[in-house]
Amino acid sequence: MFLRNFGMGVFNPMGPFKQNLRCHSVAILERNGLECGGKIILPPSALDHLTKLHIDYPMLFCLKNVQRNLQTHSGVLEFVAEEGLCYMPYWMMNRLMIEEGDFVEITSATLQKGEFVKLQPHSTAFIDISNPRAVLEMAFRAYSTLTVGDTIKVEYNSKIYLIDVLEVKPDNIHDAITIVEADVRVDFAPPLDYVEPVKPVAAPVETPVEQPPPEIEEPESLRFTGEYHTLRGGPPKQFRSDMTKSAPAEPITVPKPDDVIFKTRELKRGASSSRSGDVKRKRRKRGEKIEEEEEKPQETPKVVPFSGRGYSLR
What we know:
Layout: E1 18-25, E2 39-41, H1 44-53, E3 60-65, E4 70-78, E5 85-88, H2 90-96, E6 103-109, E7 116-121, H3 124-127, H4 132-139, E8 145-147, E9 151-156, E10 159-169, E11 176-178, E12 185-188, H5 237-245, H6 257-286
Parallel strand pairs: 1-5, 2-4, 7-12
Antiparallel strand pairs: 1-6, 3-4, 3-6, 7-10, 8-11, 9-10
């Protein structure tokens, strides 16, 4: 357009353009597409002043709320506003915290071409678009500058998305860049309404507690815990003290005195027979004659047939 012929490459000895204009929202003009952009509308007198100053293209401006010391940057769309008035997108008015009819200081500015910008969408719906970078590339045609702290508007499929400008490069004192004919890399921060997905908490795995093996008590080696008795029926002297300390055992049958006497006689008879046998062997060695005693065979009882008393039928 006609702005391309304004002072390109011409030195400006008269200083920057600076005016205080009463501000209104572009919504008053009832024109579509002006809200989702970053350009203002100035009066024709501003164009005459800019022409005399030989301002370089693209014409960029710093918009400042002097009372609150807030500022942002913009380009210019047209010079068709009423004298003393300026029209700007409503998001710029929010950035400067001004109302309809408030004054704003407008100064010409020179910004570096942008190389990088970091943006943060307000809604995850913008990230869910099939190709958000392509959408931004189309939307940036309505913008000339990006300033840190701005909340710009992007329209796509009849829906408006709010996006914050978090960072720009190269760094400069204005915290702003121009994106006109610039190759700008774009990075996204997580959206404001983004919520980290809750990781499912794995149920704790109960590890079986190893029980120690039961201790097997080894039986103590015990000697004979029964009762000791002599042939007379009493306990021997050497075991009397032990028997009192030992654990009680099952009772045993004590032989009767008659049985003990009978067994004692048999033992004596066997001992006497063994002594007589020794005497006979000694006498044989000396050559003495020994009359052999014939062993008397044991008499077997004769079987007597019926020895009862007989009776006749008479």
